[in-house]
Design a protein that fits this description.
The chain has 15 helices and 16 strands. It is of the alpha/beta class and about 375 residues long. The chain has one domain: TIM Barrel (Alpha-Beta Barrel).
């Protein structure tokens, strides 16, 4: 705790660049490391979800992501459920000059969401062999669950910039997460939050998993526009404490999924060490050749008419999704083979499983990325900052 002014105390918080992991006294052959996780009964070979964003997930990329071991989330209020053929709309957004990008996105999202397209996309995901995870906002979650019905999806991901179990509104009734789960007969993941109490409240309200992170994403401007958020390492530690207390209270372990802000494999390793059971990533996957964003990525709140809280960024095409997740890496900056990096980091820390990695020692180390790297910085190599 530090005093930020007369009589006002603030808690110091930490992000990925502020901390480092301490290698273990025992190390492992990376082949002994198990990266698999279980999220509310959904087994994943890799502890990763693809963000419910239009530049990241469509039917074909979701099917590929399933084959690679993760879980892709399709946004039910995105372009896939507004247009029978969203291809020309995606082309228009990607080709818009920078000064016109926000306007092009806003115009594209004025087309209403169509119930028949929700059902069509779910059927297409099934037919393509994808695990079916779909995401409405809290305002539309009840309607979406009623439209979807029982037995069609693997997970319902109710998500907005900030979601709490105690939301007051005259416009709509906050969703009952247990009722949603009954309607779709699938687990309900809920987010986003960044505090111990908010996470604990969501767990007590019936969330089967909780997404953690407000504003860290590369295409998100929420932190600047609204001035809210908590750096991801601290957010993960706090929400993991809520998970552990809820487990002691009820006997049910509700996993937390750290959402956003991870650029390289080392960030993912730090996320797990801070307590995350899995991660959700967007911009690294938007750079996949198979992603629908055409080398661009944009925040879902970019289309907000009154106060956009996202922007369009150029991510380029780094390579196939398989190489971004599992290598081999074409770059030296840690943005490819993300889960090969996690595996090697866990092996270096002596952690066979994700649960063991959550016990890894963390130190405050703001000089970690820059110490001894002046030559790399001067030559623009290795992602040195």
């Amino acid at each position: 705790m530090v005093e930020i002014g007369r009589g006002r105390i603030a808690r110091q918080t930490f992000g990925f660049d502020d901390v480092a992991l301490v290698p273990g006294a025992i190390t492992l052959d990376p082949e002994l490391v198990d990266l698999s996780c279980d999220l509310a009964g959904i087994h994943l070979d890799l502890p990763v979800l693809a963000s419910a964003m239009d530049a990241v997930v469509d039917v074909s990329s979701a099917a590929l992501f399933t084959q690679l071991g993760g879980l892709a989330v399709l946004h039910l209020e995105g372009l896939q459920c507004r247009y029978p053929d969203p291809g020309p709309i995606l082309d228009r957004i990607a080709s818009a000059p920078s000064e016109e990008a926000v306007g092009a996105i806003r115009e594209a999202y004025q087309e209403p969401v169509k119930d028949d397209l929700i059902l069509r996309r779910i059927a297409e995901l099934r037919q393509a062999g994808a695990r079916v995870a779909v995401s409405p906002t809290p305002m539309t979650a009840r309607h979406a669950a009623e439209i979807i019905g029982s037995g069609r999806i693997d997970a319902l991901v109710v998500q907005s910039t900030v979601t709490t179990a105690r939301h007051l509104s005259h416009r709509y009734t906050s969703p009952d997460f247990r009722q949603l789960a009954d309607l779709v007969q699938a687990p309900v993941f809920v987010g986003n939050c960044v505090s111990y109490q908010a996470a604990l409240d969501l767990m007590r309200a019936g969330a089967d998993a909780v997404l953690v992170g407000v504003g860290p994403g590369a295409a998100c401007t929420t932190r600047r526009v609204l001035g809210i958020g908590v750096p991801q390492v601290t957010a993960a530690v706090d929400c993991a404490a809520a998970r552990d207390d809820h487990l002691r209270e009820t006997g049910k372990r509700v996993p937390i999924i750290l959402d956003g802000g991870m650029r390289v494999g080392g960030d993912i390793a730090k996320a797990i060490a801070a307590g995350a059971d899995a991660v959700m990533i967007g911009s690294p996957l938007a750079a996949a050749a198979e992603a629908p964003g055409r080398g661009y990525h944009w925040g879902m709140a970019t289309s907000a008419a009154g106060l956009p809280r996202g922007t369009r960024i150029k991510v380029g095409i780094a390579g196939p999704m398989s190489e971004i997740l599992l290598g081999p890496a074409r770059r030296d900056d840690g943005t490819m083979n993300l889960f090969g990096a996690l595996r090697l980091s866990m092996a270096s820390c002596g952690a066979r499983t994700l649960l063991e990695m959550q016990q890894t020692e963390i130190v405050i180390a703001p000089a970690l990325a820059s110490e001894g790297k002046s030559v790399q910085r001067a030559q623009g190599l290795g992602g040195a900052r």
